[in-house]
Specification:
heterodimer; A: Fumarate Reductase Cytochrome B subunit; 8 helices; 3% strand; B: alpha/beta; Rossmann fold; 3 domains; five-stranded parallel β-sheet; 9 strands
C-alpha cells in the first residue's frame, strides 16, 4: 500500500476558521441552550446571576455563530472552488449525481471501491446544504426570540416574517428540536470524517487544521467547477 | 340610565364633568383618573390636560356590546369590580345601546335597538365584541334572532367606527378555536375583514386596558397604536417576563421546583413550573387586576400565556414546551431528541463495525485517470 500521494491545498483559512467557530459555538450553544430550557441549578445564590450569565454566553455565541455562517456564505462566492457554493448542489448536475451514487454505494456496502474526493464528498456536501438550512432556521428563530425583549426594535421589525410563521411557544419548541437534529448531524459528521480518514488515507481530519489533503493524482481537480447546473447553460466552457 | 339622560338633556347638553359630579366623583378624583389612564396608555404626563379636556368635551358616544361564543367572562370582569371606580363611570358615559347580559330589553325589542343604533349612528358608534365567531357549516353553530354570528358581526362591526375585540376568544378564537376547533371558530379580525378592529386579548381582558382604549378613542378620535396581532402597544408592547417582579430570581437561577416547596414559599421564579411569562406580551405585572391588587404570578401561579394567539394549543400550563406534533403527550421534545441522537449514534456504530470487516479496493482509479489527462 505504498502508493505515492500528492499534497494539495484545499481548505483556505476562512473556511477552517468558520468551521472551528461553528464547532465551538454549536457545542456552547447546545450546552447553554439545554440549561436555559431546563435550568438544573442547585442552591443558586441571589447574587450569582447564574441564568443571566448562561443566557449572556448563549447570546454571544449566537452572534459568533451567525457571523461565522454569514462569513462562510460570503466566502462561498469569494473563495476557491472547493469553498464555492456549487460544491453544495451536486444533485443539480448529472456528473454530481453520479458521484453521489458512488459515495452512497460505498457507504451502503454496495460497492467496495473507495471514492476519492478532493473537496467535499458530494453526499456530505448535500448534507451541509441541509445543515445550512437548519443553521438559518436556528439563527432566525433564535434571534426572533431574542428580539422579543424589544418589540418594535430594529431586529424585531426585520424578523417580522418569523413572528408571522410561528408563535413564540412554537419557536421555543422547534429551536429546541432542531438542536437535536444538529446533534445528530454532528455524530454523523465526526463518524464520517474518521471513517473517510481511514478509508481514503487523504488526511481528512488533519486537513481541517492544516488545509492540506493528500490525493492519488498529481493535480487536484475541483469537480464542481465543471458541473452543469442548468440544461440551458450549454457547453460554454 | 333614563334619569341620567334626562338630567344632562335638561342642562342643555351632555357634560361628563356634571355627570361625574352627580355621581359623587370630585373634580380632583376625575383629574386623578385622567392621570392614571394617561400613564396606562404610556403617554407622557403633558398629555393629561388633553385627556381631561377631551373627556370634558366628549359627545356622548354610542356603544354596542356583542356576545358570541363566549363565557361572558369579560363582561363579568368589567362589572364585578369591588367599588364603582371612576373608570367604570367613564364607561358609563358611553350610551350602551345593546348588551345582552345587562340590557332590560329582550327578543325583538333588543334586536330592534341594535338595528336602530347601526342605522342611526352608522360609522360613529363603538362596538365591543366578546367571544369567537364560528364559520363552519355556514356559521350555524351560533345564531341570534335567526342571524348567524358571522352575519351579525359583519353587519355591526362593519358599520362601526371601531371594534374592540375583548378577550382571547374575540381576538383569536380562543378556546373554541383550539384543536380540533369543531365549529371553525375565528376571531373578529378574521371573520370581518376590512373592519377596524383592536384586540384586547386575555382571559379575561383587563378592564383597565379597555377603559384606557375607550379614553384614547374619546381623546384622539382613533384607536391606539397596535402590534402585529392588533393589540394596543401600551398594554401588549412588553413581555411579562421583562416586567415581572420575580425576574431577579430568574436571572439568579433560583426556581420553584415543586408547588409549596421552600423556593415557592420564598417567591422564587416559576419558570420551571411552566410559567409562560417569557412568551407572553401583556401589562399584567404593572397594571395588575382588581384595583391593582394582584396578578397570577404575584399570587404564586405561573402565567399561562392567555393573551397569545393559539395559547390553548401551544402553551401547556405546567410545562415549558408544547407537545411535539405527531407524537403522543407522554413524549416531550427532549425524549424524542435524545432517542433520535441515540439512534444516529447506534446506526453509525453498526456501520463502523461492518466497515472494519469489509475489504476495499484501493482508492478510486477514476480520479487518477482524471489527474493524468
Amino acid at each position: 500500500m505504498s502508493e505515492s500521494k500528492y499534497k494539495q491545498y484545499i481548505w483556505e483559512l476562512p473556511v477552517r476558521i468558520s468551521h472551528w467557530v461553528n464547532v465551538l459555538s454549536i457545542v456552547i450553544l447546545s450546552l447553554t441552550g439545554i440549561l436555559i430550557g431546563n435550568p438544573a441549578f442547585i442552591d443558586s445564590s441571589p447574587t450569582a446571576y447564574l441564568m443571566g450569565w448562561i443566557r449572556f454566553i448563549h447570546f454571544v455565541c449566537a452572534y459568533a455563530f451567525a457571523v461565522s455562517v454569514i462569513a462562510r456564505m460570503i466566502w462561498s462566492v469569494r473563495g476557491n472552488c472547493y469553498a464555492g457554493w456549487r460544491e453544495y448542489f451536486p444533485f443539480f448536475s448529472k456528473e454530481g449525481r453520479k458521484d453521489m451514487k458512488d459515495v452512497f454505494d460505498y457507504y451502503t456496502f454496495r460497492s467496495s471501491r473507495v471514492p476519492e474526493t478532493v473537496g467535499h464528498n458530494p453526499v456530505a456536501a448535500t448534507a451541509y446544504f441541509g445543515l445550512f438550512l437548519l443553521y438559518w432556521f436556528m439563527i432566525l428563530t433564535g434571534f426572533a426570540m431574542y428580539a422579543e425583549h424589544a418589540p418594535g426594535g430594529v431586529m424585531h421589525s426585520l424578523l417580522k416574517p418569523v413572528y408571522l410563521m410561528f408563535t413564540t411557544q412554537q419557536m421555543h419548541l422547534y429551536h429546541h428540536l432542531v438542536m437535536y437534529l444538529i446533534i445528530g448531524f454532528v455524530i454523523n459528521h465526526i463518524y464520517s470524517a474518521w471513517f473517510m480518514d481511514i478509508k481514503e488515507k487523504g488526511g481528512e481530519i488533519s486537513s481541517m487544521f492544516s488545509g492540506y489533503k493528500f490525493t492519488t493524482s498529481r493535480y487536484a481537480v475541483c469537480k464542481s467547477k465543471q458541473w452543469e447546473f442548468f440544461p440551458w447553460s450549454g457547453k460554454k466552457n | 340610565m333614563d334619569s341620567k339622560k334626562a338630567i344632562s338633556e335638561e342642562a342643555g347638553g351632555f357634560s361628563v364633568a356634571r355627570l361625574l359630579q352627580e355621581r359623587g366623583v370630585s373634580r380632583r378624583d376625575f383629574v386623578k383618573f385622567c392621570s392614571t389612564v394617561t400613564a396606562a396608555m404610556a403617554l407622557p404626563a403633558t398629555m393629561v390636560p388633553k385627556v381631561v379636556h377631551a373627556l370634558d368635551k366628549v359627545q356622548r358616544p354610542t356603544l354596542v356590546w356583542l356576545n358570541f361564543q363566549d363565557c361572558t367572562g369579560d363582561t363579568e370582569a368589567l362589572l364585578r369590580s369591588a367599588n364603582p371606580t371612576v373608570g367604570e363611570l367613564v364607561l358609563d358615559i358611553l350610551s350602551v345601546d345593546y348588551h345582552e347580559t345587562i340590557m332590560a330589553a329582550a327578543g325583538h325589542q333588543a334586536e330592534a335597538a341594535l338595528e336602530k343604533t347601526v342605522k342611526e349612528f352608522k360609522g360613529k358608534y363603538l362596538c365591543v365584541v366578546e367571544g369567537s365567531i364560528p364559520l363552519k357549516d355556514g356559521g350555524v353553530y351560533g345564531c341570534i334572532g335567526g342571524k348567524t354570528f358571522e352575519q351579525i358581526a359583519k353587519h355591526v362591526c362593519g358599520n362601526a367606527a371601531a371594534t374592540i375585540a375583548v378577550g382571547t376568544c374575540a381576538a383569536y378564537g380562543g378556546i373554541a378555536a383550539a384543536v380540533p376547533n369543531p365549529s371553525g371558530a375565528v376571531g373578529v379580525r378574521e371573520a370581518v375583514s376590512g373592519a377596524t378592529v383592536l384586540n384586547l386579548p386575555g382571559c379575561p381582558c383587563n378592564a383597565d386596558n379597555l377603559t384606557a382604549v375607550v379614553v384614547h378613542f374619546l381623546t384622539f378620535g382613533k384607536l391606539p397604536a397596535m402590534d402585529s396581532h392588533g393589540r394596543p402597544l401600551f398594554a401588549h408592547g412588553k413581555r411579562i417576563h421583562d416586567n415581572c417582579e420575580r425576574r431577579p430570581h430568574f436571572d439568579a437561577g433560583q426556581y420553584v421546583e415543586k408547588w409549596g416547596d421552600d423556593a415557592h414559599r420564598k417567591g422564587f421564579c416559576l419558570y420551571k413550573m411552566g410559567c409562560k411569562g417569557p412568551a407572553t406580551f401583556h401589562n399584567c405585572p404593572t397594571q395588575r387586576f382588581n384595583e391593582r391588587i394582584s396578578w397570577p404570578v404575584a399570587a404564586g401561579h405561573g402565567c399561562v400565556g392567555c393573551s397569545e394567539p393559539q395559547f390553548w394549543d401551544t402553551s401547556p400550563v405546567y410545562r415549558r414546551l408544547p407537545n411535539v406534533p405527531g407524537f403522543g403527550i407522554e413524549k416531550n421534545a427532549d425524549t424524542i431528541g435524545l432517542a433520535f441522537a441515540a439512534g444516529v449514534g447506534g446506526a453509525f456504530a453498526i456501520h463502523g463495525a461492518m466497515s472494519a470487516l469489509r475489504k476495499d479496493k484501493p482508492a478510486a482509479e477514476e480520479t487518477k485517470k482524471e489527474g493524468e489527462e
